[in-house]
Design a protein that fits this description.
By secondary structure, the chain is α+β, with helices and mostly antiparallel strands. The protein contains 5 helices and 5 strands. The strands form 2 sheets. It has a 3-stranded antiparallel beta sheet with strand order 1-2-5, covered by helices on one side. The two termini are about 35 Å apart. The model has no long low-confidence stretch (mean pLDDT about 90).
Amino acid sequence: MTAQPIRTVDQLVDSYLDLADKIAQLTEQQAGVKAQLRDLGVGDHAAKNGVVVKVTPPSRRFNVDLAWMMLTEEQQKLSVGPIAAQVKKRLSGDLVDACMEDGKGDPTVKVVTP
């Protein structure tokens, strides 16, 4: 086993900054590829090598304020306040679904390797 040559602080800092710059460049390139994968549309997209790209829409959000207004006065009194978990358990599934809002932002991209 050969010993590593001792490097100066300046050499170590230069190496660190060089690596940080390369990481930034690669991260930017990866974001560009991810945007192109997102453009494939929602669904599963298989590559020939067995890798699957899963594109999912942004997560829907529960509008607790809207749901709170759907509760009767008696139901509201049984809750500490407009807390999502408490409100959801007092509404039927259809009403909970009616209080779900479309997600905001970009679809999510996940690359799954075999």
